[in-house]
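Quick one before lunch.
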Amino acid sequence: MSKLKFPQDFWWGAATSGPQSEGRFNKKNRNIFDYWFDNDKTAFFNGVGPDIASNFYNSYKEDIKMLKEIGLNSLRTSIQWTRFIKDYETVEIDEDGAKFYNNVINELIKNEIIPVLNLFHFDMPMELQEKYGGWESKYVVELFVKYARKAFELFGDRVKHWVTFNEPIVPVEAQYMYKFHYPLIVDGKKAVQVLYNTALASAKVIKEFRNMKNDGEIGIILNLTPSYPRSESTEDKKAADISDAFFNNSFLDTAIYGKFPELLVEILKKDNVLWDGTLKELEIIRENTVDFLGVNYYQPKRVKARESGFDVSKGWLPDKYFEHYDMPGRRMNIYRGWEIYPQAIYDIAKNIQENYKNIKWFISENGMGVEGEERFKNSDGIIEDDYRIDFYREHLTYLHKAIQEGANCFGYHTWTPIDCWSWTNAYKNRYGFISVDLPTQIKTIKKSGYWIKKVSETNEVEEWGK
Ligand code: BG6
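Model of the 6-O-phosphono-beta-D-glucopyranose complex:
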């Protein structure tokens, strides 16, 4: 089997988020998921909510030790706005929250694991959602900048890699279009405003970061889902272009070029749903682009021109211009219902190289959620997740090819280090290098954890298919 060598100092790590790993213990402020769970447990798989998650709030020391043991050299997590800030308007800090994040950062550094800190991972404080409509409001954008400033002030001496948002398109679609996150609204016009306000929030935070003369770097993490057209017909290709403009290039173009895609603006104008924005704001977006990019990749989009009528009772949605279809013969992760298409990682890398200034970037999430992993336990109690190792090897083989051809990729993070809580899917699908037994919270390294240790020590991966 031939070995693929990765660049020197490559990041071999993993990603999680505050709400999905920490647990809510003694926390007064609620985010939208905490609130939703308190009010409707049936919305969550097996009625499991964010209360305990993987107990990181209490077990961060032991957990970080395990991450060291499996050779990770970097970890991304997020600060919970609700945990760190007591009063969102006066920006009064929650002392326990601040102490916790300080401890986590120190512990990571002590273990020679680079901390990558994200400021927002779907977890809008409920109070701000209720009072102002969350990202619908530009006032909330200002409060977000204030919160970010506090984080930079307190942690910027040790954290050198910051991220403004994880997957900013997700709240747009999940909260305002397709009803998979609270407040379960279908309102395309609001969705467009939320998209604009989040791009603005990211740029304003970057501006603040630079004004403060922090010596680290700041980026954004986007879930890129390339839209592959069903055919080479003009109609199918146009459908895929519009899907890309809305779901991928909206944030990619603003993050890297500081402007929205022309195709997107043209369509929104034509349909009379363009955001409410000012020239001054567009200037801020233009002037505050990212230092680096994180790419979460799980699945592609398969797109065709609409064949069925668009349900106008839903009001305006970008879906009026395209439809999804199931590509015949596609490979599926049946547990998550997502297509497995590793070639897309190469296509994404080439797109960044050729069309996005070859900016430096890393894979900030890639992973395979599997249900019922206990059935793969061996007699030593270790889950033998060879399917996950194969999944990673296959994706890394495509990534390596792109790097050989000049892609500026500096790392690979998987989702996720330790099995964690996954929003409405709760603990249905497990993604970790380390398993969690929910009732006892006992954590055990899986076979893939031993695999990544070797990869990180040697900086080599066994080529897939050879
Ligand atoms: C990413 C998110 O979209 O995918 C994570 O950044 C999420 O928060 C992960 O957990 C896996 O998706 P899911 O829905 O299976 O948890």
